Amino acid sequence: DSGVTQTPKHLITATGQRVTLRCSPRSGDLSVYWYQQSLDQGLQFLIQYYNGEERAKGNILERFSAQQFPDLHSELNLSSLELGDSALYFCASKRLDTDITEAFFGQGTRLTVV
Amino acid sequence: GDSVTQMEGPVTLSEEAFLTINCTYTATGYPSLFWYVQYPGEGLQLLLKATKADDKGSNKGFEATYRKETTSFHLEKGSVQVSDSAVYFCALRAGTALIFGKGTTLSVSS
Which of B36, B46, B96 sits opposite A48 (nearest CB)? Predict the structure, then answer.
């Protein structure tokens, strides 16, 4: 158990809908990262938050947004969903954003858009 | 930009066989390098890491050496087990995020 909790584990929704994925980082970790894992693109970095502030952006679509709350949990919001958004979404956390310690990953939320 | 290339799978081996999964990278400077493993139905777990040239990371019988001259970080294990069946990802640290290779599926049969 990595200590990173993601909910829900599975989500099935229709095209055009909006969903929210939740991530609770390990206790004390200030950095949260979101990744998307799809068959065609592999593992892609979406966005990073550090202590409530957006720190880095990767290949995140404009239809997607994220935030990190004062209690350090994070939510990834996906809107106007398309079939191609079906993927496994991982959250990872680290204590800081400048150290070189490894990130700890949650088990992921599998999103299926039908 | 920074990138990681790893050998395509799947890799199918018999128990106790020798494993090599190739990984090369393109990056500015000398990034930290990682191998992550994803067991079926689970999230990624850090397997090993190396932070500078010639460092050797090792864990659970797996090893990888950071080769600056060949920009490589190949994963090896002398004798694989059925329980090693998983997807293996090579990654480098770019800024504060990780850039992953596409993953290599390893299947070990008894």
Answer: B96
* A62-70 contacts, C-beta under 8 A, 24 or more apart: A66/A34, A68/A32
* Chain segment A96-107, per-residue pLDDT in tens: 766 656 788 999
Q: Is B84 helix (H, G, I), strand (E, B) or coil?
A: helix
Note the pLDDT tens digit of each residue in A59-83: 899 999 999 999 999 999 999 999 9
CB proximity list for B59: less than 8 A, separation 6 or greater: B47, B48
DSSP 8-state assignment for residue A101: P
What are the chain B neighbours of A58 within 8 Å (beta carbons)? 97
CA-to-CA dists, residue A93 to A52, A53, A102, A104, B97, angstroms: 13, 14, 9, 5, 11
Phi-psi region of A23 (alpha: psi -120 to 50; beta: other; left: phi over 0): beta
Which of A45, A50, A105 is nearest residue B43 as measured by Cβ atoms? A105
CB A34, CB A68: distance < 8 Å: no
Residue of chain B nearest A50, judged by CA positions: B96
Q: Do B97 and A108 touch (CB under 8 A)?
A: no
